[in-house]
């Protein structure tokens, strides 16, 4: 009888370690401890207390919880401990690849050293000890959000760049965003100049942000993406958590007049250079409006077939493989570029292009004395080119980075917040 009672007493002590008195399926006896004259309540209490003292007081917590899916690639895999310090944290992918991480200086937390991968299963094993050196252990596994269940935004301009006064922050999402207000609330654009910045949705995949007037010269603009876990559409969550900044350069705005066939380059409102140009022909007028330089190419190929200029055989009306000093103004194919194939006499006198603004240049883009080379060398991404008196319609605000062609009231009306 005494052995039976001892086995039953140890079972109770083991159950107490979990903090709750439970029935054990393998106790070997149904007798209650101390329920007859053969037991000793005082002795059993001492046994229970001794067993409890052997349990570590360290409390380990792993985020996310074991078995989680659609976990964040930024904020998951955090490990913390209370009433103790971490001694070892091991994190691996399902195939055993180790994930680098670091325990904090005070030993109470751990996190990965880099962003996690999407659609990946991770395992974490943690050891800690309390002030008495007693060890505690915890394990968890989780799967990060998949590409199908997440969205990202590709943004321009890039971090650390210097851009012109017309450069908007433009974000293109890889999934259609239906919860536009929630996503917009997770995006902040601010400027050291103090200008109010408002974001405008052109469609479900694109949002641009700008102030009322052009950015102030020398200002620093900061874009903060706090989209991790934000639901952009049903079952589709953001994964970005990023801050970038860029600088506004000198205030350069260029005015192209298709009637006078002259281009005036201004800085801080003063004309610094006048250049003869050839704009779109009467059959292929150049768009009017405020356009922003979005790309620069020292040389590039221009094929009419890519922008709808084809002959009866379906071939491009032109195919020039080495157009010099090309600067994009619209997504649809409007450029300011050098022109070496036309006679020098057309510049300043005749509009002959298919819609671009042409400047005198040389083949090979290797003569720095040409007008095409000068304008290329003195322009940066984000500079504004205002095209006037072509007789064509104003460029669509979303055809390139050209939201300046909307009034401030129209622009603010496209905000979701």
UniProtKB/TrEMBL annotation:
Residues 252-388 form the L,D-TPase catalytic domain. Keywords: Acyltransferase, Cell shape, Cell wall biogenesis/degradation, Peptidoglycan synthesis, Signal, Transferase. The active site is at 337 (proton donor/acceptor), 356 (nucleophile). Coiled coil: none annotated. The keyword Transferase applies. Residues 41-53 have a biased composition (Polar residues). InterPro entries: Big_10 (IPR041280), LD-transpeptidase (IPR050979), LD_TPept_cat_dom (IPR005490), Transpep_catalytic_dom (IPR038063). PANTHER family: L,D-TRANSPEPTIDASE, L,D-TRANSPEPTIDASE YCIB-RELATED. This is Ig-like domain-containing protein.
């Amino acid at each position: 009888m005494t052995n039976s009672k001892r086995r039953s007493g140890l079972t109770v002590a083991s159950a107490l370690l979990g903090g709750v008195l439970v029935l054990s399926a393998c106790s070997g006896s149904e007798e209650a401890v101390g329920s007859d004259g053969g037991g000793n309540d005082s002795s059993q209490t001492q046994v229970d207390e001794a067993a409890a003292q052997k349990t570590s007081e360290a409390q380990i917590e792993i985020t996310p919880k074991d078995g989680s899916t659609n976990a964040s690639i930024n904020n998951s895999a955090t490990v913390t401990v209370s009433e103790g310090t971490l001694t070892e944290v091991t994190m691996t992918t399902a195939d055993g690849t180790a994930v680098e991480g670091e325990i904090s200086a005070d030993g109470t937390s751990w996190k990965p050293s880099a962003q996690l991968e999407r659609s990946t299963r991770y395992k974490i094993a943690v050891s800690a000890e309390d002030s008495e050196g007693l060890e505690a252990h915890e394990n968890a596994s989780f799967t990060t959000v998949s590409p199908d269940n997440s969205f990202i935004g590709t943004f321009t301009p890039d971090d650390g760049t210097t851009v012109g006064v017309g450069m908007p922050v433009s974000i293109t999402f890889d999934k259609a965003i239906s919860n536009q207000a929630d996503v917009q609330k997770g995006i902040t654009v601010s400027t050291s100049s103090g200008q109010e910045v408002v974001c405008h949705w052109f469609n479900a995949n694109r949002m641009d942000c700008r102030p009322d007037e052009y950015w102030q010269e020398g200002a620093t603009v900061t874009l903060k993406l706090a989209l991790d876990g934000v639901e952009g559409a049903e079952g589709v969550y953001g994964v970005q958590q990023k801050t970038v900044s860029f600088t506004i350069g000198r205030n350069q705005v260029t005015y192209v007049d298709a009637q006078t066939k002259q281009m005036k380059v201004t800085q801080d409102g003063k004309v610094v250079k006048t250049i003869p140009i050839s704009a779109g022909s009467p059959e292929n007028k150049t768009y009017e409006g405020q356009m922003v330089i979005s790309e620069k190419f020292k040389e590039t190929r221009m094929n009419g077939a890519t922008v709808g200029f084809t002959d009866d055989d379906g071939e491009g009306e032109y195919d020039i493989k080495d157009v010099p000093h090309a600067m994009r103004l619209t997504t649809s194919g409007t450029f300011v570029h050098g022109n070496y194939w036309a006679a020098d006499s057309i510049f300043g006198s005749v509009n002959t292009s298919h819609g671009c603004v042409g400047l005198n240049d040389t083949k090979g883009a290797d003569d720095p004395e040409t007008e095409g080379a000068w304008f290329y060398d003195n322009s940066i991404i984000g500079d504004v080119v205002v095209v006037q008196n072509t007789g064509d319609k104003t460029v669509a605000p979303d055809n390139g980075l050209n939201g300046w062609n909307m009034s401030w009231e129209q622009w603010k009306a496209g905000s979701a917040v």
